[in-house]
Amino acid sequence: MTSYQPDPLRYDGRMPYRRCGDSGLKLPVISLGFWHNFGDVDDLTESRPIMHRAFDLGITHFDFANNYGPPPGAAERNCGKILKEDLRGHRDELVISSKAGYHMWDGPYGDFGSRKYLLSSLDQSLERLQLDYVDIFYSHRPDPDTPLEETMGALATAVQQGKALYVGISNYTEELAAEANNILANMGVRCLIHQPRYHIFDRWIEHGLTDLLLEKGIGCIPFSPLAQGLLTSRYLDGIPANSRAEKNHGFLQKEEVNKKIDQLHKLQRIAERRGQTLSQMALAWVLHHPAVTSALIGASSVRQLEENTRCLEQLEFTNEELTSIDQAISD
Ligand SMILES: NC(=O)c1ccc[n+]([C@@H]2O[C@H](COP(=O)([O-])OP(=O)(O)OC[C@H]3O[C@@H](n4cnc5c(N)ncnc54)[C@H](OP(=O)(O)O)[C@@H]3O)[C@@H](O)[C@H]2O)c1
Fold first, then answer.
1. What is the pLDDT of residue 250?
2. Across the chain, which distance is largest between two alpha carbons, in Å?
3. Which residue of 120, 144, 283, 326 sits 20 to 30 Å from the alpha carbon of 102, by its own alpha carbon?
4. Residue whose CA is closest, atom 47 of ligand 1?
5. 12-34 in b/e burial notation, b at 16+ Cβ within 10 A?
6. What CA–CA distance (Å, rounded) separates 296 from 32?
7. CA-to-CA distance for 234 and 49, rounded, in angstroms?
């Protein structure tokens, strides 16, 4: 238990909140995800200060999944404890999400998109998080072998049971997202949000998905907007100890860093001319897309979180800047 007292000025206007699609729910333009840095292998002395600072900065949305760790489940368990001890009195100020869709437990019922898996997993997440409900429950990825009606039906049941206030989808193509949205609408449930990967190097969502989201009034919360740390100053002088690319359990490959290094230096120079760091420019770039509600970042320190949220001081781009970003990554 700590004596944490949230900053009384946290809603003073520095953090903008955008409406999530056509829904009534507003999300902070920067949200914090718990994929890395909050597992049992991580330095948990940083976890508590990161969560406190995020809340003080107006970041009211924390994103989990059943399998975040390592080991799977650890991030929900470690942060559930902190939520209970330090933020219990602020539950109604927080939007907490979780997901199921990737491998979580052995046997035929611990993966993908069956009703059996999704609803059992949600119960397990609630127990680890020590919460009665999550605000958003996602299907983490489409399941090629389960009828979409069954997966969406499980999400609708989570809402009907009061275990989730809203539902979302993640990693769904434009076609599957359209189908999922129709099925949910027919069940009287809004598809609140889509969580896809999107950053300066990976623009797949611009080829149809974002048009669909705008047309249907579905929010969009891109994950890994910093390309897991590539689009920051982290790797400009090599691969530092303790960085994601250096860790065995990380998902960022050293080869990927080395392949991109020239482009990163070019992008860094553009950011400098804008009076920003590379991470600030990368976040502003994602937030510049009209379909985007919030950028879902990760952070391994309070310093990173603070640097990143200062992107809000310069969100506009000139056409010349946008063109030079495109050129920097196409060279
Ligand atoms: N739906 C899905 O399938 C899916 C998939 C992936 C992620 N997500 C969600 O998206 C969230 C964010 O993903 P992500 O962690 O890959 O996001 P990211 O923001 O692209 O990368 C975060 C990492 O970049 C580094 N970093 C961040 N700010 C920095 C700064 N200012 N200077 C230097 N380095 C900095 C840190 O890595 P170091 O550890 O090296 O310091 C940090 O852990 C996840 O936590 C999760 O909630 C969802």
1. 80
2. 54
3. 283
4. 33
5. eeebebeebbebebbbbbbbbbb
6. 6
7. 21
What is the pLDDT at residue 1? Answer: 59
32-57 residue pLDDT tens: 999 999 999 988 899 999 999 999 99
The 3-state DSSP class for residue 15 equals coil
Alpha helical stretches, state H, 87-234: 115-129, 148-160, 174-186, 209-216
User: In testing the pocket of ligand 1, which one of 34, 264, 300, 305 has its CB within 8 Å of the most ligand atoms?
Assistant: 300
Q: CB under 6 Å to ligand 1: residues?
A: 33-37, 63, 140, 170-171, 195, 223-229, 232-234, 243-244, 279, 296-300, 304, 307-308
Residues β-bridged to residue 199: 202
The residue whose two tokens read 């976040």 is 283
Strand 17-19 with 26-28, pairing:
antiparallel
Q: What is the pLDDT of residue 2?
A: 72
Look up residue 64 and give its amino acid.
F
- Tell me how far the alpha carbon of residue 78 lies from the centroid of ligand 1, in angstroms: 18
Sign of CA dihedral 178, 32, 271, 244: negative
Looking up tokens 């611009």 gives 206
Q: What are the residue ranges in the chain where pLDDT is below 50?
A: none
Q: Which of 67, 234, 257, 312 to mutate to test the pocket of ligand 1 (most atoms within 8 A of CB)?
A: 234
What is the pLDDT at residue 278?
Answer: 98
State residue 147's pLDDT score: 98
The confidence score (pLDDT) of residue 44 equals: 84
